[in-house]
């Protein structure tokens, strides 16, 4: 008999439940958290749950919710005041800066929650590029930047970060940072490289929220971020990052790069993290902007698609909202 009744397996809730291939749980989610000092925190953000800028004294309440929801990890993004941003990004290793104070507060309030920090200079430079800019050519200098990323990484570990997410896209940084961490005895710090980070228009809301991109039309990061047109190039970088010592890798924007997740997963077993970026989050929540998240929402569909493609975890600003309302 050639005719097949596929609908048999979808015919009742019990059978659909029994054969569901992937599941989304709170343990899969990483809450993206913007932190700021009083002045910036008071300014309106993206206007969606999870995208507000938290003051350090508000983190305790947030972390209570994170723990209660069963979310294992938070990813921190400090919205540094423009006055502390410099050409050389010195604020990136300030042991009493906004990031350091936030990490200390989170470790105090929720000692069992993982803290992921962003390694890249963009939140600390006055131009918003992820690295050091050559004043004559305007180029983002690779090797000079890697030296500073090593300094930033060691400082973040000293501040108390558990996992470093390298979002800068410089060459050779995974190896350089891994060696420096080993040398300093930080053997248990997770290194998570953004292996496939495409030069995307979907970062615009993030850049507005961390408030550094005053460039009309947006900063051009195409000399270090991968073109959305190139999949093989992303895979080459992914393989190299793992060889250099990355424990896990990040793909972003998530829904634009589901094919890359599936390809990576087929190549190696290293855990993959999808990053549902600010622009995706805004798009996905457009349908329920003013209402609570509902079952079968675009958010759920997007997150479960990441899992289907091979992601073990997903960074999203909506983690708490999803965990509290959908799971
Ligand atoms: C930069 C960085 C970016 C994001 C995270 N880290 C943006 C950029 O490359 O300019 C984007 C995250 C988002 O849009 O939610 N190191």
Structure write-up:
This protein is globular. The protein has one domain: Aldolase class I (TIM Barrel). It is an alpha/beta fold and 327 residues long. Helices cover 36% and strands 15% of the residues. Helix 4 (98-109) links the parallel strand 3 (73-78) and strand 4 (114-119). An 8-stranded parallel barrel has the order 1-3-4-7-8-9-10-11, surrounded by 7 helices. A two-stranded antiparallel sheet has the order 5-6. The N and C termini lie far apart (40 Å). The structure holds ligand PBG. Ligand PBG is lined by residues 118, 120, 122, 130, 167-168, 203, 206-207, 221, 277-278.
Give descriptors for this structure.
single chain, 327 residues, TIM Barrel, eight-stranded parallel β-barrel, 11 strands, 36% helix, 15% strand, binds ligand PBG
Secondary structure layout:
Elements lengths: L12 H6 L10 E7 L2 H4 L11 E2 L4 H11 L3 E6 L19 H12 L4 E6 L12 E2 L6 E2 H18 L3 E4 L6 H11 L6 E8 L6 H6 L22 H13 L3 E5 L5 H10 L4 E4 L2 H7 L13 H12 L3 E4 L2 H7 L2
Parallel strand pairs: 1-2, 1-3, 1-11, 3-4, 4-7, 7-8, 8-9, 9-10, 10-11
Antiparallel strand pairs: 5-6
Helix pairs in contact: 3-4, 5-6, 6-8, 9-11
The site of ligand PBG has 12 residues, from α7.
The assigned structural class equals alpha/beta
**Average pLDDT for all residues:** 95
Strand content: 15-25%
Cα separation of the termini:
40 Å
CATH topology: TIM Barrel
Largest sheet: 8 strands, parallel, barrel
Strand order of the largest sheet: 1-3-4-7-8-9-10-11
The multimeric state of the shown protein is single chain
**Fraction in helix:** 25-40%
Number of helices: 12
The number of strands is 11
The unreliable regions are none
Radius of gyration computed on alpha carbons? 20 Å
Outline type: globular
| SSE topology string | HEHEHEHEEEHEHEHHEHEHHEH
Bound molecules: ligand PBG
Structural domain count: 1
CATH class: Alpha Beta
CATH superfamily: Aldolase class I
The CATH architecture designation is Alpha-Beta Barrel
């Amino acid at each position: 008999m050639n005719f097949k009744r596929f609908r048999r397996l979808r015919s009742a809730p019990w059978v659909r439940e029994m054969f569901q291939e992937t599941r989304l749980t709170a343990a899969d989610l990483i809450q993206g958290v913007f932190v700021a000092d009083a002045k910036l925190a008071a300014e309106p953000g993206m206007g969606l749950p999870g995208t507000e800028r938290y003051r350090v004294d508000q983190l305790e309440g947030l972390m209570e919710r994170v723990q209660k929801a069963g979310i294992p990890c938070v990813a921190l993004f400090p919205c540094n005041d423009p006055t502390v941003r410099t050409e050389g990004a010195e604020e990136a290793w300030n042991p009493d800066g906004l990031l350091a104070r936030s990490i200390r507060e989170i470790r105090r309030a929720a000692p069992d929650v993982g803290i992921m920090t962003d390694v890249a200079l963009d939140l600390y430079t006055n131009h918003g590029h992820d690295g050091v800019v050559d004043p004559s050519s305007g180029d983002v200098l690779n090797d000079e930047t890697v030296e500073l990323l090593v300094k930033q990484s060691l400082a973040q570990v000293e501040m108390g970060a558990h996992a470093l997410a390298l979002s800068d896209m410089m060459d050779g940084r995974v190896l350089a940072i891994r060696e420096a961490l080993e040398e300093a005895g930080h053997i248990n710090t997770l290194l998570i490289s953004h292996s496939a980070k495409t030069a995307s228009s979907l970062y615009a809301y993030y850049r507005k929220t961390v408030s550094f991109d005053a460039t009309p039309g947006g900063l051009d990061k195409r000399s270090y971020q991968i073109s959305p047109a190139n999949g093989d190039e992303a895979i080459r970088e992914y393989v190299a990052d793992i060889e250099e010592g990355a424990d896990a890798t990040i793909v972003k924007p998530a829904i634009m790069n589901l094919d890359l997740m599936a390809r990576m997963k087929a190549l190696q077993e290293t855990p993959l993290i999808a990053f549902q970026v600010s622009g995706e989050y805004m798009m996905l929540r457009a349908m329920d902007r003013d209402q609570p998240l509902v079952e079968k929402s675009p958010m759920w569909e997007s997150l479960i698609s990441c899992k289907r493609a091979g992601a073990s975890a997903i960074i999203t600003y909506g983690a708490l909202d999803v965990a509290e309302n959908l799971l």
